[in-house]
Amino acid sequence: MIHRISRLLVSALVFLGAAQAYAEQYPAKVITIIVPFAAGGPSDTIARLTAQAMGTILKGTMIVENVAGAGGTIGAARLTQAKPDGYTLFIHHIGHATAPALYRKLSYDAMSDFEPVGLINDGAMTFVARKDFPAKDLKELLAYVAANKDKVNMANAGVGSASHLCGMLFMSALKTDLTTIPYKGTGPAMNDLLGGQVDFMCDQTTNTTSHIKAGKIKVYGVTTPKRIASMPEVPTMNEAGMPNFTVTVWHALYAPKGTPKAIVDQLSKALQDALKDPTLKQRFADLGSEPVAQERATPEALRVQLKSEIEKWGPIIKNAGVFAD
Q1: Are 258 and 92 in contact (CB under 8 A)?
Q2: In the chain, how long is the greatest CA-to-CA distance?
Q3: Using CA atoms, how far apart are residues 287 and 46, in angstroms rounded to an integer?
Q4: Residue 134 CA: distances (Å) to CA of 35, 41, 118, 141
């Protein structure tokens, strides 16, 4: 018995030693970050900025692979099939928490089939309209929508997108169903808003800030509890006339389930250090976003956030009766 226990202890020590050696050599090749949306969109921008900063800290190369479709679920499924060696990662936003309610059939479990690394940022959304939309402020917009609900339309970036979620919350607050026009990504939706083909939409500041500042679209409010530094003149939705209308878009980093803890810890530490980088912080600020506090860029904090958001959005989506195949 003593000899058997000794052998088990030796085996455990050898395994731990090998895992530690593996972590010390990491990364030995290019790390790919899957982004489940098209290039050029808000999530893609956040991912590329994060990848650049983390790559510098890890002294390795991190590239972004866009695997778009089905509200981010195709990219998520791709990660669950990846080898859990730390060389394939995944960045997704709040949509990862809403997919379990939106999709009747998923090939994965959003909580148990991923290895959380940490939260990345909190971002605001803006409620915007075409440049020539009649309403000059949110109160006028609400009155206009009430009087013309069968004539107005609202764009979004597709089922499961942040703009889709924000739109559902808007209609839930108004207790009114509006004509919604889903697009295959934020870019096409914004292009039609700029061209006046659609009336309004709710979209992340990463995609709207430059157009708002250039006067190409109207803005009625930001969805965060406080005004944002990049556009301090824009009121919150609460200030503008919709109490308790809050949507914060967060992004997070995940690894495949089963990735060695030493690698996950190394990635989490690199993420925390990246979020302290002044250049990254400024780029985020320019986009109306901000890095999360250090204690939230951890696996534990991400688990808590994900569980909380799943519980929050499930009833909203169910009550709206909007589901994807």
Answers
A1: no
A2: 83
A3: 9
A4: 37, 28, 43, 8
Q: Domain spanning 2-123+249-320 has what CATH number?
A: 3.40.190.150
In tens, the pLDDT along 277-325 reads 999 999 998 888 899 999 999 999 999 999 999 998 898 888 877 777 6
Rounded CA gap, 190 and 94, in Å?
20
Cβ density class 290-325: b for 16+ within 10 Å, e for less: bbbeeebbbbebbeebbeebbeebeeebeebebebe
Same fold, 2-123+249-320 and 125-240: yes
Contacts of 85 (CB under 8 A, 6+ apart): 259, 263
- Assigned fold of 125-240: D-Maltodextrin-Binding Protein; domain 2 (3.40.190)
- β-pairing, 31-35 vs 62-66, is parallel
Residue ranges per structural domain of the chain: 2-123+249-320, 125-240
Confidence of residue 23 (pLDDT cuts 50, 70, 90): low
**Average pLDDT taken over every residue of the chain:** 91
Contact 230, 151 (CB under 8 A): no
